[in-house]
Design a protein that fits this description.
The protein is α/β, with parallel strands linked by helices. The protein has 10 helices and 14 strands.
Length: 296
């Protein structure tokens, strides 16, 4: 995290409706690989919404624009203005009012709410400085709810969190199962954050976080075949990964997919059906779809 005297980067743009603004905030919060990000959306006169992002370190502008394009189109992405501003604790300021998020047996919370986790729940503590927002929208909550349902049916022996980000899903699975979980991400910074979060949650010995693109790393073959895969990423990479993901599944394995807008879900389901999986359940939360599939 930058020091109070160092400059930060600000990115701003406007969008036409609340629903799209919410989706953009969710997508960036979930998938941007830096933990030095704070983002907020505010309604302005005329019915439009201003979206403002603050980065303690210089952001990957192309990746930010790609996320916005995926959610709201190229015109919105090209309207983003990046500028340098005076630093303040934007993360703390933006996340101060967040409350614990319940999803089945799981509760995602900050350190200030540690004592509020019921004894019959599994707490997942994520500090504000380490992107606490990951539990606070439909994609992560949808995955946690489906994970809870899978664990009510079966106890998978080998688990993979593909595109793990801050490690929330890997930590949830590891704490519930009390066994090893492989977590992979394409961004080294996210891998470091996932490791730190696993240690914070007492799951450091169970979560193996690795830097990997696709399924190229030998870690996947060494730790598979997997009885459960969680992949909360985006529609295009999910479709592209379908054949290789299916090749690493155990018989009757479960797969939880998210990061999908409702209109994208059908094409993702089709890709995984073509790879030998069937759809068991689809849920929609806050404009995001999450899928539970199983290898036939």
């Amino acid at each position: 995290m930058s020091s109070p005297s160092s400059p930060a980067t600000q990115a701003t743009f406007a969008i036409g409706d609340e629903r799209t603004a919410s989706r953009i905030v969710d997508a960036i919060t979930e998938r941007y690989p830096s933990h030095d990000l704070a983002i907020a959306a505010f309604e302005v006169p005329g019915g439009r919404w201003d979206i403002t992002m603050h980065f303690a370190e210089a952001p990957d502008e192309d990746f930010i624009r790609a996320l916005v394009t995926e959610t709201a189109g190229d015109a919105a992405a090209q309207s983003i203005i990046f500028s340098t501003v005076e630093t303040k604790d934007w993360v703390k300021a933006s996340l101060a009012d967040l409350v614990p998020v319940n999803a089945g047996r799981f509760v995602v919370h900050g350190s200030h709410d540690r004592e509020r986790v019921p004894p019959n729940k599994i707490g997942i503590e994520i500090e504000a400085a380490l992107a606490f927002g990951t539990g606070h929208h439909g994609t992560t909550r949808g995955c946690l709810l489906l994970l809870d349902q899978v664990l009510n049916r079966r106890t998978p022996k080998r688990v993979l969190d593909l595109g793990s980000g801050t490690g929330v899903l890997a930590i949830a699975a590891a704490k519930a199962l009390r066994r090893r979980v492989l977590a992979s991400d394409i961004d080294p910074r996210s891998v470091a954050v996932a490791r730190e979060n696993a240690q914070l949650n007492g799951a450091g010995n169970w979560v193996e976080a690795i830097h990997a693109t696709g399924f190229q790393s030998p870690h996947f073959a060494a730790n598979g075949p997997f009885g459960l895969v969680l992949a909360n990423i985006l529609a295009n990479p999910l479709r592209q990964l379908a054949p290789s993901l299916a090749a690493h599944l155990a018989p009757q394995a479960f797969v939880i997919l998210s990061g999908l807008l409702p209109h994208q879900a059908s094409s993702v389901v089709a890709a995984y059906r073509g790879a030998g999986l069937k759809l068991l359940k689809r849920i929609q939360i806050e404009g995001w779809s999450s899928l539970l599939m199983q290898r036939r």
